[in-house]
User: Fold these one by one.
Assistant:
Number 1:
Amino acid sequence: MRLVKILAVGDVHGFRHLNILLASLKTLINMKPDLIIFAGDMIDGGNIRELRTIMEGIESKFSNVPVISVFGNEEYHEVESELIREYPHITWLNDSITIIYVDEVKVGIVGSRGALEKLTHWQRKNKPVLEKVYRERPRIIENLIREVKKEADITIYLSHYAPTFITVRGEPERILPYMGSRDIEGVLRRTKPDVAIHAHAHNARILEAVLDGVRIYNVSLPARKGVTMINISPKNLSAFMSN
């Protein structure tokens, strides 16, 4: 079975980092990904129109490539249905799964916003229900990963929030509980997907790690200053970044 080529990016934040994205895409010469993955915060402040400009830039470089995305904290809950309606060619994952065939290889993707260990001040004030959501979500994700692994040749966990604190190092220690959840790290250790992809940590200095055989990539555009290319075989014999 051949390698599957994935282009992954998160935290474009609409026009804020659009120029970095477009410049990075220009550096990808004579290569075309099999899948494009968005790890959330592709827009800013719930402005769904910003995604159109991003998609135009990506589609002008790579046409007819499947795009899979999760929501970030900037894709507000209130605009989820609008995003799904306005961009039906994107497969939106929200505590859900998809399986995509890349030639003979079945790629299973579990997608979620992820979880935080602590609610932000805004969340505590405006969406306290998220405390329960973040407490229950690891169990949901674990069940989804186990389900996908039964039939996929490659299993990917995709989230916006970090599934471990390893790939957010460089952020201030005091804000780590607002970056991700070590409960999800426990899920990865138990279920062992081939790859985990996330964003959210703009200032991280460690952008790749291996956790009990699971390769984890922080694909935050501000952290990397470019998109991430990941090549992976069904047995995870090769996985590496181009940026």
Number 2:
Amino acid sequence: MPPTTRSVAILIFDDVEVLDFCGPFEVFSVTQRNEVSRPFRVFTVAQHAGVVTARNGLRVLPDFDCQGAPRPDLLVVPGGQGTRREMHNGQLLEWIRAQEPECELVLSVCTGALLLAKAGLLDGLSATTHHGALDLLREVAPRTTVEAARRVVDNGTLITSAGVAAGIDMSLYVVARLLGEDVAQETAHYMEYPWPGTVGSGQPAEGSEEE
């Protein structure tokens, strides 16, 4: 049987935090980079076609708009200041909501958890987010258990992570879960990223600026 290639859609929007989406993009893109058949096909998706301006002015051209995007196996929802606007964007929330039943995993980084909460995907689950947005997540998702001290929270098909760089840890955690710890460690070694392994997913989240 040929190896499975999973499609990974990374949502982007104006004022998205750069490392929130670029970190997972890097991890999934370089996993088993020497294999003929890669385990992940990674692409970016925005609500509309055209340039997206991320935090600090980085301009990104998404691969697809929401209407034309392939069905993802994994959906990554990053954070950033733009989530404060997009959490009131009914069309985008409906698109996220529509992907969830078809996805193997839905992942959030940082305040991307606010979008999952507003889409109704965190009800009855545990979640984390950037340390500066924990109270806001509690307000937006009163039926969610907010795990302030967890870097990665795995609910089975829905995984959330703490702020910014925690998205790299979460992505490596997902690689380990899907392909094995050895593959994740090899990916982290290639990136020269000091990943503690899946045992480190419960480490406290730290940071300096609310996203």
Number 3:
Amino acid sequence: MSASPAKPTYGDLTTQGASTNIAWHHTSVDRAARAGQRGHRSAILWFTGLSGSGKSTLANAVNAALFEKGLACYVLDGDNIRHGLCKDLGFSDADREENIRRIGEVSKLFLDAGVVVLTAFVSPFKADRDRARALVDGGDFIEIHCAADLAVCEERDTKGLYAKARAGEIKEFTGISSPYEAPEAPELRVDTGNQTLEQSVEQVLVYLSAQGIIAQAN
């Protein structure tokens, strides 16, 4: 007979933010067990870049490629998240910070669940991205800078947002009236302004293979 799962254990009661008398619940199935069952590591692929830089397009294309390889994977998209989890937030600096804080915590849960989670958010501030990185162990957070120039992003302007921002119809728009702090040393910098989507996907997959997150191609 197979052994029964270990009984959950609880840590000491603590206070976290506004929550009191809470304890961390150690589950009976951990991340290592999930990795063993699925045959691959989990990771956070954090795509960051200006609006129109191709974050969502690339994240979804990489997600499709990972799915075809049989990996457990999921995309957290900036617009989709603001339809639910973060619909109470606007685009002030404080709200942007809270938006990324929530995404960092959700991404950490996906990581523990054994999933390769791909996040596609402008996440314009370095401090916010660093806080998300600090939530997990080294090697679990892979920052991918979609490095398309502002001119390229404006030319694409698939949502018409830059035109509205230039006209003053959208306040605090990243790249126009609000700053974007580009990553100084991301794990991966992808030239989404000049490369084809296929080239960008391959660049990401090669990196993931080198890191042992996906199996190397034969």
Number 4:
Amino acid sequence: MSMKPATQEELINEVLHHLQIDPHKRATGLSDFILGAQDGLVNVLGVALGIAAATNDVRIVLVAGLATTFAESISMGAVAYTTTLTDADLYQSEREREYRHIIETPNLERKEVRDIYASKGFQEELLDRIVETITANQDVWVAVMMAEEHKLAPVDRKTALHAALVVGMSAVVGSLIPLLPFMFLSISNSMWAAVLITALALFAIGAYKARVTVGKPLKSGVEMALIGTLSALAGYLVGYILKVPPLP
């Protein structure tokens, strides 16, 4: 059954829907932001609660928290930078290996393409045409093997610095949130307030992640808040167990 050609108005409406109403999400560094912010929130809250429980001294809490904030942000940014470069190097290494394989063992590589598309349900003449089309061009052939066999996507080395900055800065912002109550409240009130505002921040991050990707904002927010808060409370337990006795 042949399809009726689309009218110009229908094409325009579909283009508007594709670009404005339901556009594809662009890479925005969301995962880098979540990594840095969540890590900063949870780690510094754990440090702050542990130090507060052990010393009952706001000044020590702030010093330890700020030291953790800046040391961690630099460390997280460096990890993001080196990880991005490593991923780019891995992709390039495997890509060069695939080029060698299709030259040195073309029959085996062609069979791998056939097996991949046969597993997707293609058969007989259609499968033959797919394999012939893919293997007719080395660049297409390698791209298919990288995506289908190795499950690897290209990584631009130029994004390494951007990833480092996003992770590092979001770690700083996330780390400062649990410390805010200790600047204005008593030590006991600060501990409760820090847990509350950190849980709210984690909930907001989880809900936002679900809204821009896939998932239920409420469920995602609650999960992130619970996991992060429970992890940070481990720091409180350590501080409480190793509590420093008051000076005579």
